[in-house]
């Protein structure tokens, strides 16, 4: 699937650093991403348990989780998604062909 980004979305990206794309991720990819995220949240909560706290870095149990740079630990399709066609299309449309 080729991702289409409107001129308005591109302008917002350049002005504000973000924009929203609806229904770009397939149901299959979305389910896989949710599974990976659930696993990373469980690991973060386990670290909280070991530390005897509900706070771990910027993460707060049940409220917010900061789970960055974990794709190397992914067991599912995270790398395939991150380095796949959908994300590549988005990068090319916003940052350029050399992204």
Overview of this protein structure:
A two-stranded antiparallel ribbon has the order 1-2. It has helices spanning 7-16, 27-51, 78-82, 85-94, and strands at 55-56, 59-60. It has 99 residues and is mainly alpha-helical. A hairpin with a 2-residue loop joins strand 1 and strand 2 (59-60). The model has no long low-confidence stretch (mean pLDDT 90).
Summarize the structure.
This protein has about 100 residues and is mainly alpha-helical. The protein is about 50% helix and about 5% strand.
Radius of gyration: 16 Å
Q: For the residues shown, what is the average pLDDT?
A: 90
| Main pleated-sheet profile | 2 strands, antiparallel
- Given helix and strand content, the structural type is mainly alpha
Listing every helix as H and every strand as E from the N terminus to the C terminus, the arrangement reads: HHEEHH
| C-alpha end-to-end distance | 19 Å
Helices, by number, come to 4
Name the strands of the widest sheet in spatial order: 1-2
Oligomeric state of the chains?
single chain
Which percent range fits the helix content?
40-55%
How big a fraction of the residues is strand? under 5%
| Poorly predicted parts | none
Per DSSP E runs of 2 or more residues, the count of β-strands stands at: 2
Query: Could you say which overall geometry the principal axes of the C-alpha atoms support?
Result: elongated
């Amino acid at each position: 699937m080729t991702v289409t980004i409107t001129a308005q979305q591109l302008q917002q990206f350049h002005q504000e650093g973000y924009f929203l794309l609806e229904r770009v991720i397939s149901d299959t990819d979305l389910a896989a991403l949710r599974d990976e995220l659930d696993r990373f949240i469980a690991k973060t909560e386990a670290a909280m348990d070991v530390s005897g706290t509900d706070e771990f870095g910027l993460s707060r149990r049940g409220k917010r989780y900061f789970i960055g740079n974990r794709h190397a630990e992914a067991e599912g399709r995270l790398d395939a998604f991150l380095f796949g066609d959908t994300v590549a299309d988005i990068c090319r449309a916003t940052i350029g062909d050399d992204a």
